[in-house]
Amino acid sequence: MKGKIVICEYISTGFNYIEDVLARGFEPVLLEGHYPGTELEINFYREERKRINEKYADRLEIIKESDDYEKTLAAVKAVNPLLVIPGAEFGVPLATRLASDLGLPGNPLSRLKAMTEKDAMQAALKEKGLRYIRGKIIHSEEEAAAFYDQLGVEDIVVKRCRGGGTAGVFMCHGKEEMLAAVKQSFLEAPKDESGKNDLEIMIQEQIKGTEYIVNTVSCNGKHRIVSAWVYNKVKMSNGGNAYNYAMNISRLKTGHSRLCRYALQVVEAIGIKYGPVHGEYMIDDKGPVLIEVNCRPMGAGLQRKFTERIFGHHETDVALDSYLNPQKFEEDDRAPYRPDEFGAIKVVILAGETEVKSAPIMQIAKELKSYFSGFYAGIGQTEILHETRDLGTTGGMIYLLNKDENLVKNDCELLHLIEMKYPRIFFQNSDYEERFNTAPRNILAVIEECHCMGATLVFSDRADEDFGDVKVTDSKNLTEAYNSYENGILDISRAESYSDLESMIQQIFVFFKKIRRGGRIIVPESTWCHLPYGIDGMEILMKAAGHIVELPLARMPELLISCVE
């Protein structure tokens, strides 16, 4: 090994540093830091870190941050590192301080407040004559009310001074709503040992426009844009500002070059010398303005292969170049910005507290034509998922990728429609009552009315019945069935067949694949009546599989028919 590189907090996208460091012939040393935040937020991070530790415990050295900084410094100094770098948000202060005290490349300790505290970021922009957002740290509801009056605007953001992922962020309209959010923020704010708030609360004027991400990496003060994304967010009824999805910008449109120019000025104003900065910006009718910077890789647990297919590189690898290979960093900076594919990070929104008996979402997402991968937070670990308010209370992430931008957008929109209007098709709960519905069943009449003249497959939970010349199969034999039928009839009419909805939906998708392109899927009411949301639920499955739903037959309008694309 060439030497050791300490990664301070190695969760989310920062996880990629581990294999990147190994690939370069260096030895990663993992440094566990402390997390400020609510117990729910801390548990979310701890669970992710626990999974990573279990993977590398026998291969890599792990250092735990001590309450005594000098002990942590001594432990890190003992491994004689070449670098100390932050992998996640709450690793930034510790990594910056350690690198400074050890005389290693990093960002100036004097700029740490501007790097991590949202009020100081805006102050740094104001000092450099750049556009900034008016705001103030507040310590009481009375102080908040006074500053609200001073701002002279109705729409306000209440947020914590530190952190990311919209944790503790409230979008408020009017003084009353703002004061309620301030009160809740003080109640929820994590406390230190003395009982004081561990994270300060601030209020800002709310900027309305389109939100963007501009990610940069810096090498000894030279800044390079490595990726740009556009956000779609949703204001929740609980006051949270939830992520819906982010999609990469493939080509710069009018206003985007101004955004990128401003982003480079922001990084310079903050005082960044080395490594990645995840910047979040808003463009309104006045142009771009900074929401916040996070001086670490972009979050959302981005896999290397996902971002490489879009941008031709991944952020943590470029960040290592900024420290270890300045010449390559310089050469790559000359390459034009030409993303090759369209990627989207779809955040799974939970519209309310959600009981999870099974998770059909995992099967539905896989059928989307743009599906790349998925991660589902908490599924299998807990039966209750909390209502989404921020990135730490989502149902997971679905990563979509395709050369067709419209296909990726349509898949995002379908997933959002389901999670907001048809959530029980994503997550089965114990109150799932539709499976006890009934409807008349007559498969022979369906075959006759639909003129199933060619090769026809009936997937049935009553496979002992005879339907003449058509082929009948059951769940035990479905996988081995011929895969080029012209017609498919879905005959799953027993209530008990739907007790495990995820397994049943998985089998339905296998059945769909047995019908050739241009063929028909025919679903009688005796089948679709058992699904959550009935016929709408079945249509969702057809759309996820990329089928075209056909007009109903006049003589049997209760049949749902789709064409395989």
Can you describe what's shown?
Helix 7 runs antiparallel to helix 8 (175-188), helix 11 (315-324) packs across helix 12 and helix 13 (361-367) runs parallel beside helix 16. A hairpin with a 2-residue loop joins strand 9 and strand 10. This protein folds into five domains: 4-104, 3-Layer(aba) Sandwich (Rossmann fold), CATH 3.40.50.720; 115-132 and 212-340, 2-Layer Sandwich (D-amino Acid Aminotransferase, Chain A, domain 1), CATH 3.30.470.20; 134-205, ATP-grasp fold, A domain (Dna Ligase, domain 1, 2-Layer Sandwich); 342-431, Aldehyde Oxidoreductase, domain 3, CATH 3.90.1170; 435-563, Vaccinia Virus protein VP39 (Rossmann fold), CATH 3.40.50.150. The chain has 18 helices and 24 strands. With 565 residues, the chain is of the alpha+beta class. The strands form five sheets. The chain has an eight-stranded antiparallel β-sheet, with helices on both faces. Strands 20-19-21-22-24-23 form a six-stranded mixed β-sheet, with helices on both faces. A four-stranded parallel β-sheet has the order 3-2-1-4, sandwiched between helices. The model has no long low-confidence stretch (mean pLDDT 92). It is elongated, with a radius of gyration of 27 Å.
- The CATH homology group name of the largest domain: ATP-grasp fold, B domain
Number of strands: 24
**Integer tally of domains:** 5
CATH class division of the largest domain = Alpha Beta
CATH architecture of the largest domain: 2-Layer Sandwich
List keywords for this structure.
single chain; 565 residues; alpha+beta; Rossmann fold; D-amino Acid Aminotransferase, Chain A, domain 1; Dna Ligase, domain 1; 5 domains; 8-stranded antiparallel beta sheet; 6-stranded mixed beta sheet; 18 helices; elongated
